[in-house]
Amino acid sequence: MPHRCPWPGEDPLYIAYHDTDWGVPEYDDRALYEKLVLDGFQAGLSWITILRKRENFREAFDRFDPQAIARYGEADIDRLLANSGIVRSRAKIEAAIQGARVWCDIQDSSRGFSQRLWDFVDGAPATHHYASMAEVPAQTPTSQAMSKELKSLGFKFCGPVIVYAFMQAVGMVNDHLTGCFRHEEVARLNTPASA
């Protein structure tokens, strides 16, 4: 049995997420929006709660198509609040819609959502060398700076701790522990899409 980071425990879904998704560099604009929204829905909850509902979220939110979500109105909010398969928080639903509108503005007027976020890490993932979970920070100056910019643009539920979890998940940082079999596998993936 491979040695892995301890946080997935024995949950098969969590183990699969750790072994295949977490820490893999993601450069797709839409996929980054999805992950940021899901991390926002996680606020006050555990990630496994969101992971178990991820497919329900995808169905409810038009596969996280920001252009579709940006057009949501009150009827859509009511529909989502009635959906027991997702986290039914009006504030978080409204934040996802607002975030989609901001995403569209960024896509239309600048270098794009992905590049804007990846610029915080100079376009390439950082591989850390933590031996224990106690060494892994909850936030960093980079996550604080990204959080501040996202909030200034109009995103919500994106504090520096949520943003650092997002950065870990989308491979901006490789925080697999050094004893984890995924540490070296993910480090080998850590090259920018343009390379």
What does this structure look like?
By secondary structure, the chain is an all-alpha fold. Helix content is 55%, strand content 2%. The protein is built from ten helices and two strands; from the N terminus they run H-H-H-H-H-H-H-E-H-H-E-H. The protein has helices at residues 12-20, 29-42, 47-60, 66-69, 74-81, 90-109, 113-118, 141-153, 160-169, 181-189, and strands spanning 126-127, 173-174. It has a two-stranded parallel ribbon with strand order 1-2. The model has no long low-confidence stretch (mean pLDDT 95).
- The count of β-strands is 2
Question: What string, H for helix and E for strand, traces the elements in order?
Answer: HHHHHHHEHHEH
User: What is the helix fraction of residues, given as a range?
Assistant: 40-55%
Radius of gyration: 17 Å
In DSSP terms (H or I, runs of 4 or more residues), the helix count works out at 10
The biggest beta sheet reads: 2 strands, parallel
Order of neighbouring strands in the sheet with most strands: 1-2
Mean pLDDT: 95
How does the overall form come out from the CA principal axes? globular
- Return the structural class: mainly alpha
Catalogue the unreliable spans: none
Distance between the termini: 34 Å
Q: In what range is the share of β-strand residues?
A: under 5%
